[in-house]
Design brief:
Layout lengths: L6 H58 L6 H10 L1 H8 L36 E14 L5 E17 L6 E3 L14
Antiparallel strand pairs: 1-2, 2-3
């Protein structure tokens, strides 16, 4: 006659197998799904915030005829300027659609203070404007050289980037990429 193993060995092995199955499911499915969900949230939220900064830059340019690289001034402008507030709260008289150019964030609210930073790392968005120096020779009516005229133009183009690598808007070199997002 063979001696059978005691029942407690079967119970211990079953518990060990169940624990290993749980750990495998956690490592193979739940942790990657959570990381993927977080990454999707950070990407979507960064794009929404960057779109709102783009809309603020457009409104700034409409009022001041140039772009700005100062996030503090830009956000204060969209929070306090009467023309911006009228646009946010207004409606198109023909279509009766809202004229608000800003997107609500993933939490369903429009929080201008969150436009300073990226949602993942909480680092400030990178915002730059161009500086263009144009030089031109000037001549009098007889064709004699009078001097060199130098004009410095600041803010005709801007560049906005996520510090976490979730995209860019605009370009400091090419006019064709003004207000163009890398993910569109």
């Amino acid at each position: 006659m063979k001696k059978t193993e005691p029942m407690y060995i079967h119970i211990i092995l079953t518990v060990v197998i169940l624990v290993l199955v749980y750990v495998l499911a956690e490592v193979a499915y739940f942790i990657p799904k959570e990381k993927l969900d977080n990454e999707n949230y950070w990407t979507q939220e960064s794009h929404l915030r960057m779109n709102n900064i783009r809309q603020a830059e457009i409104l700034w340019k409409n009022k001041f005829k140039k772009f700005t690289d100062n996030l503090d001034s830009l956000i204060l402008f969209i929070k306090t300027d009467s023309t911006v507030l009228a646009k946010i709260n207004g409606y198109d008289s023909l279509s009766m659609k809202p004229t608000n150019p800003f997107d609500t964030l993933t939490n369903g609210r429009l929080d201008f203070d969150s436009l300073f930073y990226s949602p993942k790392s909480h680092k400030f968005f990178i915002l730059k404007v161009d500086t263009t120096v144009k030089t031109d020779s000037t001549f009098d009516h007889r064709g004699r050289f009078r001097g060199i005229d130098t004009t410095i133009i600041i803010g005709s183009k801007y560049y906005l980037a996520s510090p976490d690598g979730y995209g860019t808007i605009g370009d400091l070199e090419r006019d064709a990429l003004i207000n163009t997002a890398s993910w569109e």
